[in-house]
């Protein structure tokens, strides 16, 4: 999800210091891609060289080398890279910290941090919602001002395999920063996103509801309510306990108690160099206690 | 954790038909390997061909092709393959199914399946609890009959790095099959496991509570209550939403409502060839509906 916001953002206000381009730096990300079914005959063939590493009884392990064309990489380049982009990408692979955020912690630690973020950080979201950008990646949209949303397929998804399907639904309504702002009043919005996304993704990509996992992040990587729609089979970044909250569970929790997110303690896992981790460590002796 | 139980169980009866070799079948597994630091200069060089897929402002995405030697595969071959091996490998990398299990579904579908499991499936657990096996992997134990447990380090952990720390706490009390059996009465047990595991793992491996993630699985891979203790930084198998339930959240939920797990709908992600998926598909038209 760090890569989601990074790849989706269309930079703008060059006046904000954190968004100043550093013209001599680039961020290069290389990712191996999943095997495709059509490659299997070529992979299981004499064109793959095998060197035996280990064997025991019926079990053998080899190092294999295949033709270059069978091993495409997904390469992302951000150039020139801003300070903000560099910070985001640094934190993607670091150690993580477990935090218990009471609602008081939210008000005293998390909310001040959210309010300190420059409004320009959401310019790229506004561009999408105003149809100034990324309209070509639309899967479905609902323009109702209360329960409307836009569903785009994410840049992390190559659309070649359904196994790593990744779409992102952004609500049209402004001002819902995160799960902490959700109340029972938002149930129509959340249910609308669930029903219409399941239907549209199901029809366009021929997948059933049981092949899809819909979830929110807490802490999200940007402060405008959005719902991740990924293949159930996909071990997506940010799918882990302490980050992903299944939309069905969120709807159930709000149905049982409309103010639950203005009361309950949230369990959060964040990279140690996320700015919020520093804020929690300054404010609480043990971030894992509540 | 399927591997946890598999590796802990001692196979036996060679007469069992499921271990008969099928001499004409092999299991071939190809896995892409992580990039190595030493490869970076070669990867970020003119020997990597790039084709532009997409660009927007400072963001560009390419398909890249590198030299074959930079893309080794990890190849495992099992030959001749037994029926048992084929079953295991089918479920490991298969597609997954999202299920919404109401409490009625639990009683009508899940519980009959649990009760159909042979009691011998828990022999290896009894061996641990009776100190007949695996005492050498003990981290800490509390022999109180009500709130006691045994914490072992897991075979998945090589104890070379704290980044993939993995321990498993099993309660001494028999008969708590899964989260569905938990009520407010079990809060002293769960809190005892939390406090003593955090303390023991913290002292023996020099990690703080914010470096550890404690969670239960639902559906668990065996039906005796256990708590996973892993490094917060570790992307452990089964850490995903729809499987892992953070112990802190479980304690909070039981504190708010002692009977919550005898009421709430559970969101479950399972491999499609897990026997429970077949049972749900037979019983419900859409396993993802509740």
Characteristic key phrases:
homodimer, 290 residues, alpha+beta, two-stranded antiparallel ribbon, 8 helices, 14 strands, 27% helix, disordered N terminus
Describe the protein in words:
The structure is a homodimer of 290-residue chains. In chain A, the strands form 5 sheets. In chain A, strands 8-9-10-12-11-13 form a 6-stranded antiparallel β-sheet. The first copy, chain A, has a two-stranded antiparallel sheet with strand order 1-6. The first copy, chain A, has helices at residues 2-8, 40-43, 83-91, 103-116, 123-129, 187-205, 247-256, 275-283, and strands spanning 21-22, 27-32, 49-56, 59-65, 73-78, 81-82, 96-101, 138-142, 149-153, 166-171, 212-217, 226-231, 244-246, 266-271. Chain A has 8 helices and 14 strands. Chain A has 290 residues and is of the alpha+beta class.
Cα end-to-end separation of chain A: 27 Å
Number of extended strands of chain A: 14
Overall structural class of chain A, as computed from helix and strand content, comes to: alpha+beta
Give the mean pLDDT of chain A: 87
Low-confidence stretches of chain A are 1-18
Percent of residues in beta strands of chain A: 25-35%
Strand order in the largest sheet of chain A: 8-9-10-12-11-13
Which chains make the largest contact? Answer: A-B, 78 and 74 residues
Which H/E pattern describes the elements of chain A? HEEHEEEEHEHHEEEHEEEHEH
Helicity range of chain A? 25-40%
């Amino acid at each position: 999800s760090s890569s989601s916001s990074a790849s989706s953002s269309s930079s703008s206000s060059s006046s904000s210091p954190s968004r100043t381009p550093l013209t001599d730096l680039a961020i290069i990300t290389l990712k191996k891609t999943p095997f495709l079914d059509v490659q299997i005959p070529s992979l299981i063939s004499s064109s793959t060289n095998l060197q035996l590493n280990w064997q025991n009884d019926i079990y053998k392990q080899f190092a294999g080398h295949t033709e270059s064309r069978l091993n495409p990489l997904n390469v992302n380049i951000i150039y020139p890279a801003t300070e903000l982009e560099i910070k985001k990408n640094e934190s993607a692979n670091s150690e993580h910290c477990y935090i218990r955020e009471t609602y008081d912690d939210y008000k005293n630690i998390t909310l001040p941090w959210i309010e300190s973020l420059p409004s320009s950080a959401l310019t790229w979201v506004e561009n999408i919602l105003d149809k100034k950008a990324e309209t070509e990646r639309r899967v479905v949209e609902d323009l109702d001002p209360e329960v409307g949303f836009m569903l785009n397929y994410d840049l992390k998804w190559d659309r070649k395999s359904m196994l790593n399907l990744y779409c992102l639904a952004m609500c049209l309504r402004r001002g819902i920063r995160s799960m902490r702002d959700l109340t029972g009043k938002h149930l129509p919005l959340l249910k609308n996103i669930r029903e219409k996304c399941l239907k549209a993704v199901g029809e366009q990509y021929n997948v059933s509801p049981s092949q899809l996992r819909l979830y929110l992040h807490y802490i999200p990587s940007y402060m405008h309510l959005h719902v991740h729609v990924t293949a159930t089979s996909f071990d997506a970044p940010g799918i882990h306990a302490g980050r992903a909250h299944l939309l069905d569970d969120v709807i159930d929790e709000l149905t049982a108690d409309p103010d639950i997110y203005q009361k309950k303690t949230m369990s959060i896992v964040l990279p140690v160099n996320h700015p919020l981790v520093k804020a929690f460590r300054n404010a609480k002796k043990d971030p894992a206690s509540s």
